[in-house]
Amino acid sequence: MGPPGQVGLNRPALGQPVQLQRPVRPAPGQLAGGTIELKRPEAPAQQQQQPRTDIAFTRPPAQVEDEGKGRPGGRLGRIAVVVEDEDAELDEDEDDDKKKGKKKRGKREKVTAEMKRAARKQREAEREEKAASQRREKEEIFEVGEEGMSLEALAEAIQVDPSDIMRTLFMKGIMLSMNQVLDKNTVKLVAGEFDLLVVDKEEAGVTAGAVKQRDFLELEDLEDAVPRPPVVTVMGHVDHGKTSLLDFIRKAKVAAGEAGGITQAIGAYNVEVAVEGGDRTICFLDTPGHEAFSAMRARGARVTDIAIIIVAADDGVQPQTREAVSHAQAADVPIIVAINKIDKPGADVERAKQSLLELNLVPEEWGGNTVMVPISAKKGTGIDDLLQAVAWVAEEKQLMANAARLAAGTVIEAHLDKKRGAVATLLVQAGTLRTGDVVACGACYGKVRSLTNSAGRPVAEAGPSIAVQLIGLNAVPQAGDEFQAHSSEGDARKAAESASQGLRAARIAEMSSTGSMVTLSSLATFDEDTDTLQRMNLIIKGDTSGVVEAIKGALQGLPQESVVLRYLLCAAGDITTSDVDLAAASSGMVVGFNLSPDEAVQSHAKRLGVTINTYKVIYNLIDDVKAAMEGKLRTVEERQPLGSATVKAVFGSGKKKVAGCVVDEGRLQKGAQMEVSRGKEIVYSGKVASLRRIKDNVEEVQVGLECGVGGEDFTSWQEGDAIKCFLVVSKSQRLEEARAATAVDASTL
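^ thats the sequence. predicted structure below, dont judge the formating
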């Protein structure tokens, strides 16, 4: 026991009573001190005294031989304690009698995996019930702009009293006034305290997409539902080890072959893994971490059951980490954090966990609900624990699907193959897809000619949570399109035509609102740019629709106040002579990703003077397009200071007057520009026409020397005049500089 007045909990041996040291309220005139001994009470025949406080941690204890097994971290479970009335006066003699008569407890019951899962399910059900109750009373989603929102507006949005918000922030050391505006981070902090999720506008779309997915895949017949494998999306910042993790799990070396060290397209893999209870199938989605692939990560979050957020132990939370967590939270997807690269010298797992707190991810061992597993994807350390965690979460979710219905799911990726035609990677989410089925994928449709699994082997059918490549569509669908099998080709064609009309209307509305509608009349005026606004025309082709989408999204992030990007064509497939013709007619730029145009197309482009730019790394593509945009900007003149001088005397008369000067700083240079100021007034601005040193004409005079200076058509020199000498050079603008200049011009209106 500790010293008097100190609270302490001694971990007992198995089967022994718990002793809790607690300060005793002293009687009048007595000093504070003493201890209270608390025992595990046996169930009495009748309750003698109503306890004031009950603390019950329901997770059962484990036997000694089970230490280190079970959940990652090897926790033994918590101890059930009953704390009786702290004001009750204990009779020491009676207490001694109770202790003598008390029988020694037997061994604790062994904790099984089923009991652990039951405890986790109970906590999950309580959280869901609490969240559902709050959603009935409050807005599920409210948007917050970059400027934040006022305290009053926030209180109204989440339907709480403003004083409660002020009190909450005060407890965190943040003082507020009633009229103060809260920035976005503070709003998110408040939302977290009230169990709400604040999302950016883009994330609201992710949430809506997730809801749409659930509606789209509603089971037709619950009696036919069977368990299905979990779909797990691996997300995180670039180079934090996502692909290396899957590489280790699949035992296939794919990470080293990626251009630029980044995953260029989303991949779907079904993997058999060994976990507690036997082998399980898990469908992994590998999403790129580069910032340009935000749309791919959002799409992955919408179709997934569990999100693994991978964080490097030596790097912590990074921008794409935050974005990935936001996507998963917006889609209401359970998150497991894999803290990778623990084998590196600078790895700090605890610091990585600390950095995740800002994203409202609290480790289970710190009292939170997020499973965090330290791993090394390079060496395989902790991978088994990670897979076991996935299996536990999947079992808790009780994932089910109706395998007997017509197949439905999502297009993960699609591209055009020269020999096989349109190739689409599909994730079957309900039903069973078979060769010979007729499907509609967005605006495309066709009969399934062949199915290939993630191992590259042909298969006859694919059930729920299975990823396959499909051949047989009449065109290349868009990544993210929903697919549905139909009973007849006519039904599939009607569904595709309906989707096509809706897509066409949406695109026309978007292009009209942005002024990027391309018509024959607009092609004729493409070169009629103004001095303040230039246009740059792009034809973008890529190997997959997802990559094209990512490129367009990345380019939209470039400043376009002075040069506007105009997308004449964005599509998956090879670069054709038609693309070259379009570029020639519009003075456009052709960019291809993961493509190599054939010799006929290259020859055609050479004849028309069109340059085709192809890339394998998206960084290079963005840099080149940005450079081309900057090439359309007007050059600006910039002063480069050379030196200054002071007029000490004036020599000569008439047009031959010169100023006798001393160079105070830098140098004076013949032919350079100079300004002559008298007090605050500039009396001359022009060239240095002549420069003499004693009796010689010189090209320049250095600091500290005397010289004679003559100006073009200027003879009104006076003693004390100040001379500033400089060069005027033309400089190309950067897009960021043009944006700043545009903002300054707008502010002066």
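The chain has 18 helices and 35 strands.
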